[in-house]
Specification:
single chain, 143 residues, alpha+beta, Alpha-D-Glucose-1,6-Bisphosphate, Chain A, domain 4, seven-stranded antiparallel β-sheet, 7 strands, 37% strand, globular, ASHA1/2-like_C, START-like_dom_sf
Length: 143
């Protein structure tokens, strides 16, 4: 099994980052504007990326200001059955560390590599949203 793993440091309170990762407003500002988010364990959130490309994520864990985990139930076949987690850690001087993991990939493919890049962009968007008030959702990116 393969795993994507990134860390980033955000100069913002841990609660602000947790809120950005668990709300319609936050995820709509940093990931995609076409979404329906339900922030309760067991609920399914729908993230749209154009041309009928939808990712359905089931909320597996919500530990306030500490950990969020999703299970992909519908998407590209390479994503189905994979999990995405966000772990948050307070550091000095108002900085929060975030560790993003996308795990249970069956193999390392070109799509895996493309997603690895895009998860790094997701973390940059999250950082900009939490520090500057403006993220970069999918619909605003140039590919």
């Amino acid at each position: 099994m393969e795993k994507i793993e990134h860390i980033n440091y955000i100069k913002a309170p841990i609660s602000k980052i947790y809120e950005a990762l668990t709300t319609q407003e936050g995820l709509g500002s940093i990931w995609t504007t076409d979404l329906t988010v339900q922030s309760e364990v067991g609920a399914i959130s729908d993230f749209g990326f154009g041309d009928d490309d939808h990712v359905l994520m089931q909320m597996v864990e919500l530990t306030e200001n500490k950990r969020i985990e999703w299970l992909c139930t519908h998407s590209d076949p390479e994503w189905i059955g994979t999990g995405v987690s966000f772990e948050l850690f307070e550091r000095k001087n108002g900085v929060t560390a975030i560790v993003l993991k996308h795990f249970n990939w069956r193999e390392l493919t070109e799509f895996y590599q493309w997603c690895n890049y895009n998860w790094a962009m997701f973390l940059l968007s999250l950082k900009d949203y939490c520090e500057k008030g403006k993220g970069l959702a999918y619909q605003e990116r140039e590919f």
